[in-house]
Amino acid sequence: MSLLDELLKRNEEWAAKINKEDPTFFSQLAEQQSPDYLWIGCSDSRVPAIQLLGMMPGDIFVHRNIANLVIHTDLSCMSVIQYAVDVLKVKHIIVTGHYDCGGIKAAMKKQSYDLIDGWLRNIKDTYVKYSDSFDEQMTDEQRLNYLTELNVIEQAKNVCHTTCVQQAWARGQALTVHGFIYSVKDGRLKDLNMNFDNLDKINDLYHIG
Q1: Residue 101 catalytic?
Q2: Are residues 5 and 73 in the same domain?
Q3: pLDDT tens-digit profile of 37-76?
């Protein structure tokens, strides 16, 4: 059996198991999706949003990329955010990074990774921006963990700087942007207490009026 055949077999078994547990599950799922959450996470295969939150398909809208970046020239990410806010009317946008992130590790090194260099530069910018806050006594792991957390905070702010999020707040839509961090060592999520729910929480230079 090939690897692809194995995937199809696993899917068949999963669908049969779900259907046995709840014969109406797929018919209800096919009708619509109305999640309360948009999850912006890393593409790392060890960080699956649905599983680590204990949710089912349809419960959470997901966008993933290397190092969970929110870049305003990334039309894919911007489109996902706008659809989640304007169409799905999600109540929470959760930017989630994770410790031991390969993207963060790569950004801290002085070497080229070819095409991905432009992507990693956004993390390098955060590293430089907060360079004075890194303690000289930090170990390499501590520096990596700290930058990972800073990256989440910066990306959560970037979500708040988008036009659609600010327009949602202006019309009174209930929407909060959060920053979480995940540990692959113990499976636990931590809230970084970066919770934005109105324009007053962000620098007025980014306000769109």
Answers
A1: yes
A2: no
A3: 999 999 998 888 888 898 887 889 999 999 999 999 999 9
Known active-site residue 92: no
Domain extent for 27: 1-31
Whether 143 is a known active-site residue: answer no
- Identified catalytic residue from 10, 22, 36, 46: 46
Query: Do 104 and 127 lie in a common domain?
Result: yes
* pLDDT tens-digit readout, 108-150: 999 998 989 999 999 999 999 999 998 888 999 999 999 999 9
CA 153 to chain centroid? 11
Residue 46 annotated to the active site: yes
Q: Any catalytic annotation for residue 72?
A: no
Together in a domain, 39 and 14: no
Q: Which residue bears the tokens 């295969």?
A: 45
- Name beta bridge partners: 94: 39, 178
Which H or E run contains 40? strand 37-42
Q: What's the whole-model pTM score?
A: 0.91
Residues with Cβ within 8 Å of residue 199, at least 6 apart in sequence: 166, 169, 170, 207
